[in-house]
Amino acid sequence: MILEIVLIVVSIAVVLWGADRFTDGASGLARRLKVSELVIGLTVVALGTSLPEFMVSFMSVLRGSSDMSVGNIIGSNVFNILVILGVSAIMRSMPVEKTLLRRDLPICLAFSVLLVTFAVTGDVIARWEGLLLVCCFCGYMYLAYRIAMQDRKAPLPTSPKGEEKVEASLWRCLLLILVGMAALVVGGKVLVDNAAAVAREWGISESVIGMTILAGGTSLPELATSVVAARKGSLGLAFGNVVGSNIFNIAFVVGTCGCIMPMPVTEITLIDWVALIGSCILLWLTALTSRKLSKGEGILLVCCYLSYLSLLLAR
Q: How far is CA 258 from the centre of its chain?
């Protein structure tokens, strides 16, 4: 038991370190293309910080723990919205760009509704449903690519003194990406193996473990990235990271895992599905009120997550 817990802690640290390296390399590579912070957050940074969820869910499906895989995605998405954006808003009021309100948040909500529909209609996510999710993700990425091409004339990010930031070399960016991906693969495998072992030994359902321990652990890269970005004033990057990660988690992670093999979903409850859809709607409504997330709204988001967590633990 003690060894498994130690390995879980170590593997989470490795996953976080790998996600940090990957994000640094991918963000540096994207900035060389001169695209906006919001586009970087929605695509490159979101993909990089969501790789832990992908590795954990992928390994879980290969081992027949589809409930842990889906539970990890639900828990991560709820954590991303309620905790990460909540904490970021508490630290600094976050204006919301029109494109997020009109395009990305509705897409995130639509993907969440689509996942719930697939899961509850037959208690399984079939291969064709996974393929449809992947196709939707490809369509979203093509849309993001078109927007990025329109933003290529945007100036490079500047320092507080007004000087352009010095970008890392192409080879350094590629090296960071490769090293980060290697750490994510190794850390994800160790994390899933030992989390599943602890869950079975304690008699806790794998879906609850996926929505708490794994979700919190794999969402730490998003938390660190968004909180640091908000503190530095890169609010487009902070908001885009969370919304893009949630879209990636549902459309690509669940879609890819569903394409590999059908995913029975039997331990996810109505409360979990309501939390997934409700967190998206709550974020959209709070952002629409004044086109920003205030400190008070941030506190509301965090309190909602604490209420959901208490229900999970009581269950």
A: 18
Q: What tens digit of pLDDT does each residue of 52-100 get?
A: 778 778 888 887 777 778 888 888 899 999 998 999 889 888 888 888 8
Q: Which amino acid is at 204?
A: I
- Boundaries of every domain in the chain: 2-153+168-314
Instruction: Say whether 158 sits in a helix, a strand or coil.
Output: strand
pLDDT at position 159, please? 44
Query: Taking a C-beta distance cutoff of 8 angstroms, is the pair 153, 34 a contact?
Result: yes
Domain 2-153+168-314: what homologous superfamily?
Answer: NCX, central ion-binding region (1.20.1420.30)
Local confidence band at 37 (pLDDT 50, 70, 90 cut-offs) = low
Output Rg (C-alpha) for the chain, integer angstroms: 19
pTM: 0.80
CA distance linking residue 155 with residue 269, whole number of Å: 47
The two tokens of residue 103 are 């395009």
Per-residue three-class SS string for 124-142: EECHHHHHHHHHHHHHHHH
Between CA 40 and CA 62 the distance in angstroms is 31
Tell me if 46 sits within 8 A of 218, measured CB to CB: no
185 contact partners, CB below 8 Å, separation of at least 6: 55
In this predicted model, what pLDDT tens digit does every residue of 163-216 receive, in sequence order? Answer: 445 566 778 887 887 888 788 778 877 876 787 777 778 777 666 766 676 677
Core vs surface per residue 65-79: b (16+ CB within 10 A) or e: bbbbbbbbbbbbbbb
